[in-house]
Amino acid sequence: MGSTRHDLRAGGTRSVTANGITLCCAAYGDPADPPLLMIMGMGTQLNGWDMGFCDQLVDSGFYVIRFDNRDVGLSERIEGAPDLAAIRRGDLSTLPYTLKDMAADSVGLLDALGIERAHILGASMGGMIAQLVAIHWSERVRSLSLIMSSTGDPAVGRADPATLELMRRPAPATREEAVEAAVERSRVLAGSGFPFDEDAARTRAAAAYDRAHDPAGRLRQQAAAIASTDLTPELRDLRVPTVALHGTDDRLVGISGGQAIADAVPGARLEAVDGMGHGIVPEAWPQIIAAICRNAARPTASPGDAR
Fold first, then answer.
1. Tell me: the pLDDT tens digits for 266-307?
2. Domains plus CATH for the chain?
3. pTM for this structure?
4. Helix, strand or coil for residue 296?
5. CA of 61: how far to CAs of 34, 64, 291, 304, in Å?
């Protein structure tokens, strides 16, 4: 990998046209290094990827790209008011877009940045988007690292009912209420193996609210996730180096979701992070980054690879 390191924060964010819409993105490190495209989960902006985590990935030799998915942050908003109850029943008439459309956004971003192939890192719903990138545009994917994600099979990765109910609460009306609600979610989602940093959670929540607060966009992303299907049959045909990283105390997407990915993709493996919940805590960064690097170094994935 390249030896020249660029100033991580010199470029800031910029907007590009990708898949016919405007996406906000930021890149860090040496463009000569292998690119790592990071796809975040539902309702979470690019700053959901902690800058310290990005710094360490750059130090590991990647050219790191993070971006706002459509309908969050500073990326383009999409019209539509989905009926989530109807979508759960299979009526997709109010569905504004699909996760495959969001996968096409990711590929369009690579096009806009002049990147032919990239390592892909996806978190939660971003992991499902990353899987769709690998399924439909496998020639663009060097490796696939999926954190706290699942296959879309409703029998795996099931949420704790109380946690799911918390995530479905209506959006708060004020900034103060929104920040406190985000802190409560972070506390519930935090795993038992690491201390919960309430001050850091409040700082992150306030920064996210002040950068771009749009509950309607999150609902449209949620609709896309609800309408998604089980990817297991397509995953069995993948020949992309894949690792599923999952906390053992994830109450939103159970670790069986990560295991199902590892079972479906030939040559894939599950990397369990003891005590981690639904979040990427600093204490787990060394294990997570080491697993991403090992996976990125694999030349191929084949049915004969050890799991």
1. 999 999 999 999 999 999 999 999 999 999 999 864 434 433
2. 14-297 (3.40.50.1820)
3. 0.93
4. helix
5. 7, 9, 14, 28
